[in-house]
Amino acid sequence: MVTIKDIARESGYSISTVSRVLNHKGDVSGDARKKIEEVVEQFHFVPNNNAKHLKQNNSKTIGVLVKGISNMLFASIVEEIQRIIAKTDYTLVVSYLDEDEDEVEQAIVLCRERKPLGLLFLGGTPEYFKKEFARVGIPCVLVTNLADQLDFDNLSSVATDDVEGAHCAVDALFDAGHRKIGILGGNIQKSYTSYLRFCGCKESFFAHGMELDVEHCYEKIHFSFGSGYRGMNRLIGKFPDLTAVFAMSDVTAIGAVRALRDRGYQVPQDVSVIGFDGTALAEYYNPKLATVRQQYETLATRSIEILFGQIELKKQPIHEVIPFELVGGESVRVIGADE
Amino acid sequence: MVTIKDIARESGYSISTVSRVLNHKGDVSGDARKKIEEVVEQFHFVPNNNAKHLKQNNSKTIGVLVKGISNMLFASIVEEIQRIIAKTDYTLVVSYLDEDEDEVEQAIVLCRERKPLGLLFLGGTPEYFKKEFARVGIPCVLVTNLADQLDFDNLSSVATDDVEGAHCAVDALFDAGHRKIGILGGNIQKSYTSYLRFCGCKESFFAHGMELDVEHCYEKIHFSFGSGYRGMNRLIGKFPDLTAVFAMSDVTAIGAVRALRDRGYQVPQDVSVIGFDGTALAEYYNPKLATVRQQYETLATRSIEILFGQIELKKQPIHEVIPFELVGGESVRVIGADE
DNA sequence: TTGTAGGCGTTATCAA
DNA sequence: TTGATAACGCCTACAA
């Protein structure tokens, strides 16, 4: 393996000079730079980041911890973040973890190893934050979940109002004349997001003079096509006369639509479906999926603005709610409006 | 930051002893182990991987380089690989890179830093391999692209037969009675996969006594919903009387279907569409998308088997073709079969 | 402008 | 069963 030492020996200069040209530091003569770059090229030298990061203590780095590798909303946000950071002199390091892994633990590891100036959490479990977040000493923003009841002086948050969003989605079903509404959502004990959206559902039911009977109306699913499909089958099994379904994510909704069609129901003629997230999927699906669109561009932009506010201007943490948009789509039928 | 030194001081033992219990090496007294584990717990000590990897030269690690973060087929393969590796005592390190980045360069960095015993490439550009792959000294498998014309003695490959798959897809359209067939595919100069699938198309046209007129029938797209949508619009603009389309990926196909519907065409009544890959998307779409299904489970299983064959049994590289399946779906109309 | 030398946190070799 | 100590490859005062 070729190291900086080899380059030094081969080029006739010292290790420090080589290091200087590698890191584009000043104070190097043109001759030295040229010669060293030649040798680097010739020997295909690639610096060892382990050694580099072990030594370096201030890297202009922002870390992003993404929970759930196949979450299309997060993918869109990450892309957006990448685009923004590319214009600055910061470096982005993105680290993906599974749904059930501890993001705070990962954050601590990331901090040890890369010494980032700030951290962005895409998705997160309040429980994990309560447990260990105090040990993360740098500015952080929790994106997609509100952290206002988590009282840390280095943690901001930017999120869509899940309660209001779900409320609005279910309202849309009520407004279209539906009364027998089923819900497909996550485990409200474990997924805080699911819990909030569930609360929104309850509110909407209540506002329409109804009570949400969990046993009857709610079916627990994971956020995937297959789980939406199976969940919908279970739901219609126990609630056969439902006329509308709110699914807590677009993928789930699409799984549900497929299940309905496979059972001979038309969407939206027989059963209406509304989703959540507003990813490209919803727009390209057939029928176009009604959904609650999270503004991923704004989520991305604001998280970074807030993070930089904390890092560079030493601002206090903010907890910001980003408006959602109800997207009509073609998957909800207005009862009584058939001509 | 708490380091192994702090643990040593705090526990009253030496650095080496601490290191031993951290790495579960033998030759440590129960007392020492217990005391040290206590202190580690109390101080929330987390080892620094930079230091660890800098020092260590043999890690039972397999590296996976995934090209294209939002490629659903690759996501499925990675999941499968993860499942398989979890059962062994190897560790997996997955590294995602953009479509246009140099995977071989990344591989070299990965090798320096993690010293993996083997590498899996999900997707790859032959050009990059020709340029620098000689410098990667460990067993590798290129998954999803055949590397039989790349003559390296440490590079195997496992792939679906892209030529045959595309041939088959277009055959399916011809067999259904279509003659005016458009194609949505990648840049055949840059994407080798697209090139191969393009060749398959040409073969099928030829076998049916026709010539593929690129100017007229082929439209260049990226593999995304939006690009499929726009590509379809361009294609129908210059080829308005087409009756069928082969899209080189499922996402492209779905974008195309949406474009067709937005222009008032029914799928499959007016225009038939067939995709490629056979991801969950195709199965849940409306209409169910006809597609060429790549057996991602087999691709995953065989790549690992072959990699382990090279690593542990010092076997010679293999270039293996995995059969595909033509999936009927509901998006292709048989001309003349309307009752 | 360039070079010397010390140290980042860890593992591993060798004595004790 | 333990403990010094020398690396690993790189960066960076500090000296020259």
Give structural notes:
Two copies of one chain form a homodimer. By secondary structure, chain A is of the alpha/beta class. Chain A folds into three domains: about 5-45, lambda repressor-like DNA-binding domains (434 Repressor (Amino-terminal Domain), Orthogonal Bundle); about 60-160 and about 295-325, 3-Layer(aba) Sandwich (Rossmann fold); about 160-295, Response regulator (Rossmann fold, 3-Layer(aba) Sandwich). Helices cover about 45% and strands about 15% of the residues of chain A. Chain A has 14 helices and twelve strands. Chain A has helices at about 5-10, 15-20, 30-45, 50-55, 70-85, 105-115, 125-130, 160-175, 190-205, 215, 225-240, 250-260, 280-285, 295-310, and strands at about 60-65, 90-95, 120, 140-145, 155-160, 180-185, 220, 245, 270-275, 290-295, 320, 325. In chain A, the strands form three sheets. A six-stranded parallel sheet of chain A has the order 2-1-3-4-5-11, sandwiched between helices. In chain A, helix 5 links the parallel strand 1 and strand 2 (about 90-95). In chain A, helix 1 (about 5-10) crosses helix 2 (about 15-20), helix 2 (about 15-20) crosses helix 3 (about 30-45) and helix 11 (about 225-240) packs across helix 12 (about 250-260). The longest helix of chain A is centred in the last third of the chain and has 17 residues, at about 295-310. Chain A is elongated, with a radius of gyration of 25 Å. The interface between A and B is large, with 38 and 38 residues. Chain A binds a DNA duplex (16 and 16 nucleotides) through helix 2 and helix 4.
